[in-house]
Amino acid sequence: MRIGELARRTGVSERSLRYYEQQRLLAADRTAGGHRDYPEHAVDRVIRIQELFAAGLHSRTIARLLPCMRDADGGPSEVATPQLVTDLVAERERIDRMITELTRSREVLDEVIEAARTPGD
Amino acid sequence: MRIGELARRTGVSERSLRYYEQQRLLAADRTAGGHRDYPEHAVDRVIRIQELFAAGLHSRTIARLLPCMRDADGGPSEVATPQLVTDLVAERERIDRMITELTRSREVLDEVIEAARTPGD
DNA sequence: GTAGAACCTGACATTGATGTCAAGTTCAAG
DNA sequence: CTTGAACTTGACATCAATGTCAGGTTCTAC
């Protein structure tokens, strides 16, 4: 599929998809004229990439991580190097802290929203 | 307490604490000479602010939200305006999506880390 | 009163993914 | 062929919190 359709189906801008390619996160074939041509499973991959960005990972880390993911991309997954494992464990701890903070913030929002819904309270 | 101690106790840089004040997130008394003097409950407030930043809220939104939080700051909490409630509901939805993405990313990291721990697999 | 730590303001830099625009090329349908 | 939509590359802008540095002032302990 072409970049426009991929963008539409993933909700990620064409700009970002080109950036992902530049960062070696997402490969694309090319038509004879140079247009990008994505395989079907690129949709899943883009969604994963977005999730990893949302989790605060940098593109360089994602680039190292992706080859180790079991995915629908067909290719056999590599095994993470010890250095990568160390880095990923640290990222996981950071994500856990982040989830805690998000959950706490959500509770704060809940309280404020609820307090405004019950004027008599 | 002074800014150095507050920074130490919250893990937030002095630079950021000054920025919070500038953004009207955190008030501070001043000594005769102009040094900031924080009350004890500033520690809690700074932690809340950090959590809200981690949740992706902007300082302007946090500034509107803080007066509505029931907190140890003694002051009576205001009631959120309808506009603020609308905004906070949207933020809450965003936070929920974010938690979902973080949780999914955590699972991906788990898989890769675990796969590297069991070489025979 | 003095030394040194701690603090002040102000300015400028950084980060990294993404937005946006320009000028040109390719694709697909009639 | 032609036309307009979709695509290409490249460059520059943006955002918002935080880092960093300079030059000066205040505080505290002796």
TrEMBL record, chains A, B:
Keywords: DNA-binding
Source organism superkingdom: Bacteria
Pfam family, one: MerR_1
GO terms assigned for molecular function: DNA binding; DNA-binding transcription factor activity
Alphabetized InterPro entries for the sequence: DNA-bd_dom_put_sf, MerR-type_HTH_dom, MerR_fam
Name of the protein described by the UniProt record: MerR family transcriptional regulator
Originating organism: Prauserella muralis
Lineage: Bacteria, Bacillati, Actinomycetota, Actinomycetes, Pseudonocardiales
